[in-house]
Amino acid sequence: MKHVLEFEKPVIELREKIVDLKQLTDSSEMDLSDEIAKLEKRLEKLETDVYDRMAPWDRVQMARHPERPTTLDYIEHLFTDFLELHGDRTFGDDAAIVSGIARFNEQPVTVIGHQRGKDTKENIRRNFGMPHPEGYRKALRLMKQAEKFKRPIITFIDTKGAYPGKAAEERGQSEAIARNLMEMAGLTVPIICIVIGEGGSGGALGLGIGDKIFMLENSTYSVISPEGASSILWKDAGLAQEAAESMKITSYDLKKLNVIDGVIPEVRGGAHRDVEKQAQEIKQVLTDSLNELHTLNHDQLLENRFKKYKNIGDYSYLDL
Asked: How many other CB atoms are there within 10 angstroms of residue 245's CB atom?
């Protein structure tokens, strides 16, 4: 891994030291097994101290990790026969949103998700995962197609927000997101939404109306970024860490607030450390959710979805 977050540096340094000692043992006649065993025990305790007690700002940094798995990474590990479909049939294609049809446990599904890049060139092509209105219209086209063919919809949310540029506004950014909210609320097929990184503002909500909403443990979901909130509230973007504490944007906070249905545990050290293992955690949640939702008819599905959003939020947790 090339990128190390500030709060996890002690863990990474100790881990690298253990690797160096193991290599030295292999390449010489020195027996360092006792020293290695002691360091490994120390590493286990250190990982517990660091990763099991992460502050909200630490989780914000983890959600933004440049090596964090993207929608396409999870598609590769979760689905078979994925066929990507392009274009909104009105303006063009938006690479910031990936959408298509696939099989999940041999069942046909529609998969839609935000897609950011992993290097500068790809980030520019995908607009850093910030969709234009044609991206949301493409997503809606695929959702309506899923309803027609009775395919469940699975969305992956990972965006700082919808693109706020002039061209996007001219092509109806707000209307496109609002229409997705309205249409998703009334779709007669199961919808499962998973926040895999940053879930930012309306850009996230445009794919976020579902029967089940889950978050990876180190993801965030909020109306605004901590930097944006601190700039507005305290006129100082440097207070983002304090804002993250007060905004309740982490998965555990949002579960207590009854905004999401569940938290998906992450591989220790972040999902990027073992994408395949992380995908298995997601697969189990998807399997259980689809089995539950398939027992409901159209009317029950819509009624439960309506009740879910009518009753969303448990403000007693905030202890105001």
From this structure: 15
